[in-house]
Specification:
2 domains, single chain, Enolase-like, domain 1, alpha/beta, 18% strand, 15 strands, TIM Barrel, 39% helix, three-stranded antiparallel β-sheet, eight-stranded parallel barrel
């Protein structure tokens, strides 16, 4: 079997553009995948096209060899390269599963679990009471884990700008000191949410790397009473020593990893125990091949995995299949809101199924989900999503 073509489609996915990929072979077997990088759609699409050309004529069963060549032959690494490799890698795993008539999780060693716990997103809103109400709504729908962004840092926003100004400007420098009162105010959101949902629902906050070490420690002190599952990226992600210092001042687990490239990039964070929770993203770190290596390094250091996954059906399917095999899985992110779920069913058949706040693992061949090409063609990208940005 040989690869004959790699095709891709760029489509509107609500507040960003998604890039769907199909690898075709001379035996008629195909593999499909999905990646995205908000604000860099055209760059990623061009990279996908270049890497796809490099795959033509290759044996698609040699996944590890292809990964190594795509990565090493590029000479320079970086996130953009790894997103392109992720697309090829996930599609190759899907292709091999379909060729063998087996689910990808079986190719990876088989199920460790039959269901994957997932968390949803709740907008912080304008007041603690509004946030608490949103959390209650998610719990009523069966979710047991909810994450939000830092209250006051993100108000109503789009991919391009804040429609309602936030208390902290969008481009407030990450290392600037903030007034101490802001952390007491942030704590009010989590006090209201904890009272609304009770002690058994997991709460999390994503800081997007917006805080200095001093600010992050103050935030952790303010949130200690509310039993968070983790605090995500309290400081800029580039420095493991900063994350480790924050972790040494709090009992709340510190999480990071969504912006890691390949497994090589994760090692300094995991080996130094700078994080208690690792958050690789299979559509960013180099696909399933690199994601499983990150998980193995994390397991060797008794670190749990909470997959980053704010994307669509095929990335979610790849995440699900890898997550199903991991002994050290904690949880996975999922975009479960109705607007995003409507796009899942528009663009694919057989997207991951949610029941009671969990993904259900099934045995469909490959990644399970199948692209609806006619719908991809009907929904071209909106390149205005790539202008400007919010942190």
């Amino acid at each position: 079997m040989r690869i004959t073509a790699v095709r891709h489609w760029v489509v509107d996915f609500g507040f960003y553009n998604a890039i769907y990929v199909r690898i075709e072979t001379d035996e008629g077997v195909v593999g499909e995948a999905e990646v995205a990088m908000r604000r860099r759609t055209r760059s990623v699409a061009a990279l996908v096209e270049e890497l796809g050309d490099q795959l033509v004529g290759e044996d698609p069963t040699r996944i590890e060899l292809i990964w190594e060549r795509l990565y090493r032959d590029a000479f320079l690494g970086g996130t953009l390269l790894l997103i392109g490799i992720s697309a090829m890698d996930m599609a190759l795993w899907d292709l091999n599963g379909r060729a063998l008539g087996q689910p990808v999780h079986r190719l990876l060693g088989g199920r460790f679990r039959d269901r994957i716990p997932i968390y949803c997103h709740a907008a912080a809103g304008e007041t603690p009471e509004a946030f608490a109400g949103t959390c209650r709504d998610w719990v009523d729908q069966g979710f047991k884990a909810i994450k939000t962004t830092l209250p006051g840092f993100y108000s109503k926003w789009t991919s391009m700008h804040h429609e309602v100004p936030a208390s902290v400007p969008a481009r407030h420098p990450e290392t600037a000191i903030l007034p101490p009162g802001i952390f007491r105010r942030i704590a009010e959101w989590f006090a209201a949410a904890r009272e609304a949902v009770g002690p058994s629902v997991q709460l999390m906050v994503d800081c997007h790397g917006r805080l200095s070490v001093a600010n992050a420690i103050r935030l952790c002190e303010a949130l200690e009473p509310y039993d968070l599952l983790f605090i995500e990226e309290p400081t800029p992600y580039e420095r493991p020593d900063w994350l480790r210092e924050v972790g040494q001042h709090t009992s709340i687990p510190i999480a990071a990893g969504e912006r890691w490239g390949a497994h090589h990039d994760s090692a300094p964070f995991l080996e130094s125990h700078s994080v208690a929770v690792a958050q690789p993203d299979v559509s960013i770190c180099g696909g399933i091949t690199s994601g499983r290596k990150i998980a193995a390094i994390a397991e060797a250091h008794a670190i749990g995995i909470a997959f980053h996954n704010p994307f669509g059906p095929l990335t979610s399917a790849a995440t699900l299949h890898l997550a199903a095999t991991l002994p050290n899985l904690l949880i996975s992110e999922c975009m479960a809101d109705p607007k995003q779920q409507a796009l899942w069913t528009r663009y694919t058949d057989g997207a991951p199924r949610i029941e009671d706040g969990e993904w259900v693992v099934d045995d469909e061949p490959g990644l399970g989900a199948r692209l609806r090409i006619e719908e991809l063609v009907r929904n071209p990208p909106r390149l205005e999503y790539d202008r400007g940005g919010t942190r």
